[in-house]
Amino acid sequence: MIKLKKILKEDIENFNKEVDTEDLWKLVSGPKGINPIVKNITGDILRLVSKVNRNVLDDLRGPEYKDQRREWKKLKTEIDEQQKVCHQAAYELYNLGKKYAKWVESIEKVKK
């Protein structure tokens, strides 16, 4: 058991020499990491679709635009569905970020 612990510690030390865990954490959740970027993009999509929806419905009020309004509503439904997919992906990335943080923490504990 002591030999295994020594081997693991050496492996972790080698890993830490090759990979900066702090930089990896920044990649996932730092200010310019994956999680904040995806979260911002999904929010931008939601705001843009809401704004476009108001503009389209305001601009296409007359009965002559009935077909275009119907088509817009279908298109908006598709956009909303894809926005939900993006939001779910952001949530999953956030959870992966938390798992990664715990993993980095475990490496730091073994280093000591």
Task: Pick out its properties.
112 residues, mainly alpha
Please summarize the sheet with the most strands.
none
Number of domains: 1
Q: Which class best fits the helix and strand makeup?
A: mainly alpha
**Can you write the helix and strand succession as a string?**
HHHH
Q: What percentage of the residues does DSSP assign to strands (E)?
A: under 5%
- Provide the low-confidence segments as ranges: none
Summarize this structure briefly.
The chain is an all-alpha fold.
Summarize the SSE layout with pairings:
Elements: H1 2-18, H2 21-29, H3 34-59, H4 66-111
Helix pairs in contact: 2-4, 3-4
Notes on the protein architecture:
- With 112 residues, the chain is mainly alpha-helical.
- Helix 3 packs antiparallel against helix 4.
- The chain has one domain.
- The longest helix has 46 residues.
- Helix content is 88%, strand content 0%.
- It is built from 4 helices and no strands.
